[in-house]
Amino acid sequence: MSNLSEQATPGFLVWRLSMKWRVAVDRAVAPLGLTHAQYSLVASLHGMQRSGLRPSQRRLADHTGLEALYVSKLARGLEAAGLLERTRDPADPRAVQLALTEEGRETTRRAIDIVQGLLRQLLAPLGGPDSQRAQEFTRDLTALLDAPLDPSATADGTLPTTDQ
């Protein structure tokens, strides 16, 4: 792959890196009975719960970048596996709140340790997770994630006009 990266577009490289990461996490957390998407959900939920939050499915969807319907499907599967609880939000009966069970917290802690090991491997060429290069890389990724994208924009980045 590295011989192609000189000719590859940044979009292609982002896609390849995201696929490499997804496959590695899928394989690493499979022995715990999780997929990458399920890991993203439980790890995010774990962090939010440690901050004292009991998020709704919608809030967790917004946090993870996953579609709300997909989060609902994942949550139902994780609930059936005994890893999380879904309850009605007392403040909004239309909303469903999520919380990890004790088994879910233990599984998630183990999965986080595994994925942190993968992250150390991924960032080793940049000097490791605490290196200056890794911190700059994180800032660059954050800037890209914060950049708005409009699929209806034209090739030059402008929005098409409706005046003809």
Total number of strands: 2
Let me know the average pLDDT. 91
Main β-sheet description: 2 strands, antiparallel
Helix content: 55-70%
Strand order of the largest sheet: 1-2
Task: Give a written overview of the molecule.
With 164 residues, the chain is mainly alpha-helical. Helix content is 57%, strand content 9%. The protein has 6 helices and 2 strands. A two-stranded antiparallel sheet has the order 1-2. Strand 1 and strand 2 (92-100) form a beta hairpin. The longest helix is centred in the last third of the chain and has 22 residues, at 102-123. It is globular.
Task: Describe the secondary structure blueprint for this structure.
Layout: H1 10-29, H2 36-50, H3 57-64, H4 68-80, E1 84-89, E2 92-100, H5 102-123, H6 132-146
Antiparallel strand pairs: 1-2
Helix pairs in contact: 1-5, 2-3, 2-5, 3-4
Quickly describe the structure.
By secondary structure, the protein is mostly helical.
Please name the defining characteristics of this protein.
164 residues, mainly alpha, two-stranded antiparallel sheet, 2 strands
